[in-house]
Amino acid sequence: MSTAKVDLHRLARVANTMIVALTVGSFLAGLYISFWFHFLTVFFLLLTVINFFYRYVQTRHTILRNFGVIGQVRYMLESLGPELRQYLFSSDTEERPFTRVDRAEVYRKAKGIDAAVSFGSLLEYGPTEVKLRHSMYPSPQADLEPFRLTFGEERGIENCFTLTKPIIISAMSFGALGEPAIRALALGALQSGIAMNTGEGGWPKHHLEEGGDLIFQMGTAKFGVRDGEGMLDEARLRELASLPAIKMIEVKFSQGAKPGKGGLLPKEKITQEISDLRGVPMGKDVISPPYHAECRDHASTLAFIQRVQEVSGLPTGIKMCVGSLDEVGELFAEMARRDIFPDYIAIDGGEGGTGAAPKPYIDSFGMPLLPALAGVDQLLRDLGIRNRLKVLAAGKLIGAAKWVMAMCLGADAIYSARGFMFSLGCIQALHCGDNTCPVGIATHDKTLQHGLVVEEKAERVKNYVEGAVHDFEELLCSIGVTHAGALNRSHLYIPPQSILAGEAR
Ligand SMILES: Cc1cc2nc3c(=O)[nH]c(=O)nc-3n(C[C@H](O)[C@H](O)[C@H](O)COP(=O)(O)O)c2cc1C
Predict the structure, then answer these.
(1) How far is residue 69's CA from residue 442's CA, in Å, rounded to a whole number?
(2) How far apart are CA 273 and CA 257, in angstroms?
(3) 290-317 pLDDT per residue, tens
(4) Which of 145, 197, 319, 367 could form a disulfide with 483 if both were Cys (CB 3.0 to 4.6 A apart)?
(5) Atom nearest to 346 CA in ligand 1
């Protein structure tokens, strides 16, 4: 079957000849018909000069050298491609990383429109789809026990921290996100009674302004609590941990979008304030080291965790993306041997998001969340230490059904980052790294931040939390349990072809 094909070469030859012909034609028309044609002459003359420049002077772009101004159309279409695909051509279930169906659900909840959908599911019902199992005898709503998860209780510390909702705003640094977005999230978290992770953005100045519960993240560069050599400054950590809003400390080892690599903040996004809060120079990409200098093996890692626990006096967790379950299993065994445990471990799936990361890392590293979570839970059980720490999970968990699935596989509570970005109005424009986020979330450009009104968006965050927690409670009832802690693998339908089918031991 023959397909219609655009002969660009021929098209360009015709266009380039036409431009010259039109220049001459309009010049003659200006001389013999009306003076006004000279305006056209100027326009076509300009095109001729640009065309000459593209074809014979510049040497960088092959397409422009070969095709002249017509080649420029290709560049224009290419740059508009993502928008054209998103608005005109992609189906509701096609977009990546999140489909329109997924995003629309968050938008609806954030706006407080919790309408039912009609006719049938738009999602796959294929041979690998994991589904929740309902019970023939759902639990009455009245029997549901309030959600409570207390960090630090295993060590019997004084400053335990209790979650009363299953969801936490996952780490997104001030730097990756701009000030209004951080403040809207922090205020929304306060209003909805959930905690927020600060991300590795240094001293959490803007988070603290809003007054909610915070988990301070210490990345490998230790922004906010680093000494002159980039090592932990204990006095600074002690000072930070003494602030009433700081409830827990999280030592970040890796994140799903770039495991094995440190954080990256492109120079375009480094303002004077960010440079001050992180203690880094302006005008240069900020690249954090891929590991904590204090942690070079399991023993030194555990010693460091214990040191942070002692200095801060707070529940202290770790965040990582799983590369090898064998390696993580060895770490757990070392924990059991030394009787040193973080208060939680947060598992970030390889599908996790980021403000900026090199493409090979985003695409090719990191176990996907659900098998990693199932594997970690099983390792902890095998060692008899599942009751020594909590497990958190992150990785595209943007609705209650996904939260429940993760909990069935071992999560005690859920981290979400991009779900909360959607609640702020993120349109998945994929411009988080170049400071041009069109909805003012992942940018420090004041003209783009203008559209993001903190109080308005905080309300959306609160609506999203309330709507999703409501769904979560309904799902627990339908499954036939009365509290999240009762969820387990048997509440999932896992078809034999699923990636999860082999994970149970
Ligand atoms: C804009 C952005 C910035 C992020 N910054 C951090 C960070 O500072 N520290 C970190 O551990 N993870 C960071 N993450 C990863 C998230 O915390 C989370 O682990 C990951 O995106 C998976 O959750 P999600 O699928 O709900 O987004 C960031 C993610 C995004 C989208």
Answers:
(1) 34
(2) 26
(3) 999 999 999 999 999 999 999 999 999 9
(4) 145
(5) 19
